[in-house]
Design goal:
The complex is a heterodimer of chains A (111) and B (111).
Chain A: E1 9-13, E2 18-23, E3 31-38, E4 45-50, E5 55-56, E6 61-64, E7 70-75, E8 84-92, E9 105-110
Parallel strand pairs in A: 1-9
Antiparallel strand pairs in A: 2-7, 3-4, 3-8, 5-6, 6-7, 8-9
Chain B: E1 4-7, E2 10-13, E3 19-25, E4 32-38, E5 42-49, E6 56-57, E7 65-70, E8 73-78, E9 87-94, E10 100-102, E11 106-110
Parallel strand pairs in B: 2-11
Antiparallel strand pairs in B: 1-3, 3-8, 4-5, 4-9, 5-6, 7-8, 9-10, 9-11
The chains are: A mainly beta (111), B mainly beta (111).
């Protein structure tokens, strides 16, 4: 599975959009981009995933560049409850379930 | 109610004791996983199962065993607990497009 690079930390004002970048320059054609978040020792929470098209669900939007070497997770109106560590993972959908979460981005939403 | 439920949520035990962590899911997923999380090491895969009676080793299976007697249940056992098995343990089930749904975690302390 391809390696990802994310900023260590980011701040965002409450009510504003949070844009979390992820670089995955070695991504393969059959690898998906998955985003999870973990709020202080709770179970990781699935947010969204995509292959090459932009995706949107009730939680967030995922923008994947045309060359697929990077992506951005967008939380459109961040709240204090969105403060968490956000993990970008690249993996083949059907693999064994091995996940390399890495260090992720700690997003601090401030009032 | 949570889709993936783990019991117990917290457990303190002594070296040499047998411990079982239980996991049940209501999503009807075939694939289930056990992970452990240690500070600075992310999530590491212990065992996974693709179906009832199917068992596969993950990255760090030594010292652990699992049982999958029903689609909804996947239990993790530590036959003789040791202090370096002190960690946060997560169970997960896998959706149809590769997304994982995690339980809230079981914090195990081995003295």
């Amino acid at each position: 599975d391809a390696k990802t690079t994310q900023p260590t930390s980011m701040d965002c004002a409450e009510g504003r959009a949070a844009n979390l970048p992820c670089n995955h320059s070695t991504i393969s054609g059959n690898e998906y981009v998955y985003w999870y978040r973990q709020i202080h020792s709770q179970g990781p929470q699935y947010i969204i995933h995509g292959l090459k098209n932009n995706e949107t669900n009730e939680m967030a939007s995922l923008i994947i560049t045309e060359d697929r070497k990077s992506s951005t997770l967008i939380l459109p109106h961040a709240t204090l409850r969105d403060t968490a560590v956000y993990y970008c993972i690249v993996k083949v959908s059907g693999n064994t379930g091995k996940l390399i979460f890495g260090q992720g981005t700690t997003l601090q939403v401030k009032p | 109610d949570a889709d993936v439920t783990q019991t117990p949520r917290n457990r303190i035990t002594k070296t040499g004791k047998r411990i079982m962590l239980e996991c049940s899911q209501t999503k009807g997923h075939d694939r289930m996983y056990w992970y452990r999380q240690d500070p600075g090491l992310g999530l590491r895969l212990i065992y996974y199962s693709f179906d009832v009676k199917d068992i596969n080793k993950g990255e760090i299976s030594d010292g652990y065993s699992v049982s999958r007697q029903a689609q909804a249940k996947f239990s993790l056992s530590l036959e003789s607990a040791i202090p370096n098995q002190t960690a946060l343990y997560f169970c997960a089930s896998r959706g149809s497009t590769g997304e994982l749904f995690f339980g809230e975690g079981s914090r195990l302390t081995v003295l």
